[in-house]
Amino acid sequence: MSSDKPYRPNVGIALFNAAGRVLIGHRIKDDGPEIVLPGLEWQMPQGGIDAGEDPRQAVMRELWEETGAVNADYLGETDWMTYEFPAYDGPASHRLAKFRGQRQKWFALRFTGRDEEIDPLTPRNGQPAEFDQWRWERLDRVADLVVPFRRDVYRAVATRFAEFAG
């Protein structure tokens, strides 16, 4: 990956239920630089920060867009972290092809709604669904379920937010 490309500004969401488990979603497809490998299709919700958008606003928008959830309380956040995308040979027109990776700020949120509120299949804000399934998982297990290029960030998130896990 070319080091002259910028990082894409992004928020990540560790949404904790009352039992201290985090919400993870099963990725629907291989989406260019954010490749999905067989057996490693799970991740926590995350998404880009729009131009001029505050990260705290972005995290609530992304939570709603990707899961339908709106009932969540702020618990904490990380400093900025980065990861690199793997080599990408697809079309230069892909929305992520112009970035070398992502610069993320992760947020811990406590879900205060009901599980029935979570619906990752309904498109919102003109964004296609990214997940076809979801479940609650132990935070310390999530890094083993994601693609390798995200694992270091997920481990750092697990360490930083361990106090919120059940």
Automatic annotation (TrEMBL):
Residues 6-159 form the Nudix hydrolase domain. It comes from the Bacteria. Keywords: Hydrolase. A motif (Nudix box) lies at residues 47-68. Gene3D superfamilies: Nucleoside Triphosphate Pyrophosphohydrolase (3.90.79.10). The keyword Chaperone does not apply. The keyword NAD does not apply. It is an enzyme of class 3 (hydrolase). Its EC number is 3.6.1.-. PROSITE patterns: NUDIX, NUDIX_BOX. GO terms for biological process: nucleoside phosphate metabolic process; ribose phosphate metabolic process. SUPFAM superfamilies: Nudix. Its cofactor is a divalent metal cation; Mn(2+); Mg(2+). One of its GO terms (molecular function) is guanosine-3',5'-bis(diphosphate) 3'-diphosphatase activity. Belongs to the Nudix hydrolase family. RppH subfamily. HAMAP family: Nudix_RppH. Accelerates the degradation of transcripts by removing pyrophosphate from the 5'-end of triphosphorylated RNA, leading to a more labile monophosphorylated state that can stimulate subsequent ribonuclease cleavage. This is RNA pyrophosphohydrolase. It comes from Bradyrhizobium pachyrhizi.
